[in-house]
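Reply to dn_fold:

You asked what the input looked like. This is it:
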Amino acid sequence: MSAKFSEWAEGQKANETPAQAELRRRFEAGFALGLQYIEARQARGLTQRQLSEITGVTQADISRIERGAGNPTEATLQRLAEALGYKLELVAALRSMSSADGLEIARLTT
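and this is what came back:
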């Protein structure tokens, strides 16, 4: 009885309550934003510690943001974005409710 994780995950989504679906979409949005920060930081050849020294944001907070586990303020996200040469664009658009789309809360722009 072997199944792919993606198949299992789709089955779980099908059985979600509306509250669980909202929580998942928020997690996915935070994780997606974190990936943008990782990519921007690595593109500039910076470690989390170096970015911390530049911005005054603790390395632990940067790590949490990059993992989608933090709950940063807009000011913190803005400070990191500026240090990385980006602008922070806040969006609160709920896209299609299909499994491929979700909630986007913010993104980095040039």
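Confidence is low (pLDDT under 50) at residues 94-101.
Hope that clears it up.
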